[in-house]
Amino acid sequence: MQAFWHWIRRDDHFPRHAKLLGAAAFALGLACAVMPRTGVLRLEPIAVVCGTVCLWAGLSALGYGVFVLLAMDLILSPAFWRSLTHLAAPGSLADSAGAYFDLVGVIAMSVALVRQALVRSSGDKAAAPTQDSDPTPN
Question: Transmembrane region positions (predicted)?
């Protein structure tokens, strides 16, 4: 636990709130994996928001883990598919809306991952040294 707090307090180019939100999203994703019938509909929207903020802030390693964990929670959850296809109990508009929010949120997280990859690749190209166009030796 001490290593976790050291990682949060460490001064680097990632903001502390992004680290905390990423850790919260990962913990909520694990809780959703343990309770697939209710956790996905109740806790996953909070985890999706926290994970998306974490990814937009630039934490890619934790963001990839959160994205994979939440996507697997959605794929394996019977409650998600039941709410997504409107086979849930009548009058469960909140469950259906939560399922669609989770789906859109995971898509937003994948867009954030692609954005990070593009930003990283453009940064690598800018940092690479330029070569002469005439490769002939003297």
Answer: 46-72
